[in-house]
Design brief:
two-stranded antiparallel ribbon; Alpha-Beta Plaits; about 100 residues; globular; about 35% helix; alpha+beta; disordered N terminus; 3 helices
Length: about 100
């Protein structure tokens, strides 16, 4: 019986955590760039220029989480050579 409680408990914990995440109005996502990991390759900017740009320190920043469709955002996150981009949606982590 306990094995059925664990997945439900994880789902409830995930739902509770999502209550604190502010999602974009259109795509319903949140994008976080870990500046400590970012090496400024610009692959995210090439993949989704409406969402990302490099700042004066050559680190990626999010300019508009709704600037491209979600598939393009996920493609851009996947193109990051150091996995510095994290995407969260209504149901939890979308990438990685």
């Amino acid at each position: 019986m306990h094995e059925f409680l664990a997945p439900r408990s994880r789902a409830l914990a995930s739902s509770a955590a999502m209550a604190d995440v502010e999602l974009s109005p259109k795509n319903r996502i949140q994008i976080h760039v870990d500046r400590g990991l970012c090496i400024g390759s610009g692959d995210c900017v090439d993949s989704a220029p409406g969402v990302f740009e490099l700042d004066s320190e050559d680190k990626a920043v999010v300019i508009d989480p709704d600037g491209e469709d979600t598939d393009r955002v996920l493609e851009a996150a996947g193109n990051c050579p150091v996995t510095a981009i994290f995407v969260t949606g209504e149901d939890g982590d979308l990438y990685p």
